[in-house]
Amino acid sequence: MLTSTPPEVHRSPLTQLSEEENLFQSTVRRFAREQIGPHVREMDEAGVFRKDIIKQFFELGLMGIEIPEEFGGQGGSFFQCVMAVEELSAVDPSAGVIVDVQNTIVNNAIMRWANASQKQKYLPRMAADTVGSYALSEAGSGSDAFAMATQAKDNGDHFLLNGRKLWITNAAESGLFLLFANANPGVGHRGITAFLIERDFPGFQVGKKEDKLGIRASSTCELLLDNCRVPKENVMGEVGKGYKIAIETLNEGRIAIGAQMIGLARGALDHAVAYAGQRKQFGKTIGEFQGVQFQLAKMATELEAARLLVYNAARMRDAGIPFVTEAAMAKYYSSEIAETIASTAIEIFGGVGITKDYPVEKLYRDAKIGRIYEGTSNIQLMTIAKKLLGR
Ligand SMILES: Cc1cc2nc3c(=O)[nH]c(=O)nc-3n(C[C@H](O)[C@H](O)[C@H](O)COP(=O)(O)OP(=O)(O)OC[C@H]3O[C@@H](n4cnc5c(N)ncnc54)[C@H](O)[C@@H]3O)c2cc1C
Predict the structure, then answer these.
(1) What is the CA(372)–ligand 1 centre distance, in A?
(2) Is 8 an annotated catalytic residue?
């Protein structure tokens, strides 16, 4: 017997946008080009993201896309978060990841797991002026994230947290940290607990900022917890259930990393197409040579395939359909093609492509992180294989 599928799921082609989505996309696209574009090189060289642009993210509603209107957010969809990350990343992948972590990880987790008073307290801030970070990784626990050493000791009406987190995106700018620590190491990952930590909590400090190959303007810092006092009302979800929050949040975040990578790839392809149309060799523009046309056509095809994976995973998430495997595929494939598309774009530019006077070398550097954070490519492949093999 045929089962009926909810009509909204298969109603239209994946890339066909509703009127609202179209308007949203063109607004973010214009903002990225006009307001971020002129500052990309300077921010990359300084390794600092401009505060005035982050302020504009808040003013445009880009830091609280899915937050319900009653809390000051836009009441939008996950798909809109993905579109925002894609559009920003086409101009600057550092801008994309700031908005990605805020929306698809931190806000998302608060909306799903925080209690009513935590939502009341933090969601309006996240929509208005507070940047958020997600702090899971440590020096000794990356792919094996649940092997974390940071501990939380029950101390009456509060927990005392001790340890160090590493690689924390947005940390230089953040006011709120969704941080994971083990409250009962004796039971392994079943002791992991999620805490909402405000930047000025006693014993909490943002440490060294990394000097990176790519996404240089996006801050990545160490966090130090030295008897950090966290009131019990700042435990998010149940004590010992933080591992579930960590995994499920990353499953969603991965789709947006896919969006960051397709945005980046589109940026590189657009630059390559424009250059191929103007650079002359042998008395013709290089775009007239079939060899170059084929390179561009291959890039466009790979990009379209990756976009379909990302959009499908995002629309599945909005439709409430299980999406974990599709999210892993989207992130895995998008990060692979982003690197090859940015690399081919440099080749199409020839010698100038490798200089800082043209934008493609930066996109190539920025692409590398896609295969690493929010689960390396190997970790995505493990997730996909697990499903294939029924494990
Ligand atoms: C710029 C940047 C920003 C980041 N932002 C954040 C953030 O905001 N919050 C946060 O919590 N973390 C963040 N991270 C951490 C990131 O998620 C980890 O770096 C990533 O999960 C990989 O962990 P690792 O670096 O310890 O590498 P490792 O886990 O040591 O992996 C090293 C290599 O071994 C491979 N490997 C490991 N285990 C297996 C296995 N079982 N099978 C096959 N291969 C395996 C990996 O694929 C990789 O190639 C960030 C990292 C960077 C670089």
Answers:
(1) 6
(2) no
